[in-house]
């Protein structure tokens, strides 16, 4: 397979069950999804729908109860540097300088010191972080830490990048900047990305394609291709095409959140607070 | 004390200079910006720092000075108020004893013996305690294998091991080192285990994703992540090691500062008792200072960690 055609993620009939006996929870059921080489795909859904479980399966932290996930046809059996992972929490090693953090994967792969140093410098330069190569992570802001997290995940030249709500902890302004940086990096590296988020605007801005999941047990409810051209700009988020798509996704997610809350509503969970709201009202609350 | 500074332009007091290196640069501009401060404010903050340092020094002098004053007054007037100062040597007598002893070689031999014992016992405790702690912390089966035995042995104070150690080891030297080891071992072991347990799991997952094999995960992730806790164990372990060493030397030793102190009591050389005690205090202080220094050198990143260095 040529360099450009690598990074095909295929999930077939994935099911995940946590616990056993009466505590058994079906987190994910019958999920099929594909990320084409070089494609940016987001996975969105109500909280608790199992999107993170799917990412953990792709990363190799969790084994699916049924079905299989392959990368370039090879089943995933555990974590490995062929798949870069960016975590929601800051995951830089606090005891290593920024550059040593970026070098970590190359060091584990046995790359010579001078070579990994120059690779790390090049990557940090692309991300505009070269001035901070000798800083420790605790000296940096949250946005910078997360940018370095992305750079570190890219350093081993993985075929795919798996991102679990990487900007969830950042403020809105930083988040917008990070989305543009990520888009740039993604285009430069021509890498497949599986991106988990609960931010609908973010998923539309970044993705080629979006999978919407149902509430638990998580299944694929819809698969939506984002028709917006690239490169995407901040101005695009004001266009009718963007706004319409966001609204469509919001409706889809709201249906799921409502159905997830259905049992709570019936048992009087909401009226117990003395607020009289119909289903419409609950929709607005969400 | 200086009067409160008056600021003509802005009311905010200047940032103390020691906080300035902890810059928190923001995401967008990729260059650190120098902070510009009016020179008068800079001078003021330097003066503030000097004032605070001076106060620290002053309090330190008061702390140690009052100890000496109490000792001096007690022995000078031979105070008796339930505790009796009648037989206690004066600071001057102890000073004279120190001058006499420091001129002879025996005292240094005693110090050298104690240092050699504590370093041997402590080093062995590190070499066994830290790796075992990492394994116990990381693997449930290792934990289940070792922890029941550890929990039984741990409450036994090192001093209680003295008779057993004398029987167990061929020489009294070996038994003293063993007792020192016992004293240092459990704090180091248990703090290391705690260090592994309190590690953020995401670091382990990050290491695995970046291709670290199990042994390399230990060396490159689990060990450095646990280092701050390991150093806490070393500090506590060093303290207990000294307690154990002195007790062992008093009971079964030849040479050593503990032996020197006990021998002085037997020979009714009272100034030497106090000199022995002060020596133990100073050596203990040097040892814990050395560990703290090693911690600063080995873990430079902690200077920036939230909460900071303790």
Could you explain the architecture of this structure?
The complex is a heterodimer of chains A (286) and B (310). Chain A has 286 residues and is α/β, with parallel strands linked by helices. Chain A folds into two domains: 3-82 and 158-236, 3-Layer(aba) Sandwich (Rossmann fold); 95-153, no CATH class. Chain A is built from eight helices and ten strands. In chain A, the strands form two sheets. In chain A, strands 6-7-8-3-9-10 form a six-stranded mixed sheet, sandwiched between helices. Chain A has a four-stranded antiparallel sheet with strand order 2-1-4-5, with helices on one face. Chain A starts with 8 loop residues before the first strand and ends with a helix. In chain A, 43% of the residues are buried. Chain B is mostly helical and 310 residues long. Chain B folds into two domains: 40-84; 91-304, MetI-like fold. Chain B contains ten helices and two strands. Chain B has helices spanning 39-76, 91-103, 106-138, 140-153, 162-168, 172-197, 201-209, 214-252, 257-266, 270-298, and strands at 80-81, 83-84. In chain B, a hairpin with a 1-residue loop joins strand 1 and strand 2 (83-84). In chain B, helix 3 runs antiparallel to helix 8 and helix 3 (106-138) packs across helix 9 (257-266). The radius of gyration of chain B is 26 Å and the shape is flat. In chain B, 32% of the residues are buried. The chains are: A alpha/beta (286), B mainly alpha (310). The interface between A and B is large, with 43 and 34 residues. Chain A: Keywords: ATP-binding, Nucleotide-binding, Transport. Chain A: GO terms for molecular function: ATP binding. Chain A: This is ABC transporter ATP-binding protein. Chain A: Pfam families: ABC_tran (PF00005). Chain A: Belongs to the ABC transporter superfamily. Chain B: It comes from Camelimonas fluminis.
